[in-house]
């Protein structure tokens, strides 16, 4: 399958990994939008939020548990951070393998701007 995040999971494309367990991998975004910008992804290829099924409940829980752990490890848990999922075209999704952006390390601007 021609999916860059599947290749990152397999290790055929290099990444700066910060976390890995049975269900998820997390690594630094190649184009950081904040001092801390980490992507947390399921090892399973799930294209978008719309494709998450009831059977994926454990995987989704693992993504959020990883976010909590990584935020603490990165030293941003107390000051705070933002978790974002972009879904499909209007959401600005570019890579079609489910991922959550973990952003922090500075005071982030308002989420919604027109
Ligand atoms: P999306 O817009 O789909 O929510 O976000 C995709 C993110 O993946 C972008 O922030 C982009 O910088 C990041 N990205 C794309 N290709 C790569 C890659 O090969 N390696 C890493 N580490 N990040 C990538
Ligand atoms: Zn994939």
Walkthrough of the structure:
This protein is α+β, with helices and mostly antiparallel strands. Helix content is 25%, strand content 22%. It is built from three helices and five strands, in the order αβββαβαβ. The chain has helices spanning 4-10, 57-73, 88-91; strands at residues 17-20, 24-28, 36-42, 81-84, 100-104. A five-stranded antiparallel sheet has the order 1-2-3-5-4, with helices on one face. It is globular. It binds guanosine-5'-monophosphate and zinc ion. The site of zinc ion has 5 residues, from helix 1.
**Percent of residues in helices:** 10-25%
* Count of runs of 4 or more consecutive helical residues: 3
- Class by alpha and beta content: alpha+beta
How much strand content do the residues show? 15-25%
How confident overall, as mean pLDDT?
A: 96
Bound molecules: guanosine-5'-monophosphate, zinc ion
Quick one: how many beta strands?
Answer: 5
Strand/helix succession: HEEEHEHE
| Separation, N- and C-terminal Cα atoms | 36 Å
**Rg to the nearest angstrom?**
14 Å
Strand order of the largest sheet: 1-2-3-5-4
Report on the biggest sheet: 5 strands, antiparallel
Shape, per Cα inertia axes: globular
Which regions are unreliable across 5 or more consecutive residues at pLDDT < 50?
Answer: none
């Amino acid at each position: 399958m021609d999916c860059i995040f599947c290749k990152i999971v397999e290790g055929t494309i290099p990444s700066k990994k910060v976390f890995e367990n049975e269900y998820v991998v997390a690594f630094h975004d190649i184009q950081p939008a904040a001092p801390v910008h980490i992507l947390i992804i399921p090892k399973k290829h799930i294209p978008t939020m719309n494709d998450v099924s009831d059977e994926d409940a454990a995987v989704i829980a693992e993504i959020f548990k990883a976010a909590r752990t990584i935020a603490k490890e990165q030293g941003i848990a107390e000051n705070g951070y933002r978790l974002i999922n972009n879904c499909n075209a209007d959401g600005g999704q570019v890579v079609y393998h489910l991922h959550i952006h973990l952003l922090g390390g500075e005071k982030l601007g308002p989420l919604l701007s027109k």
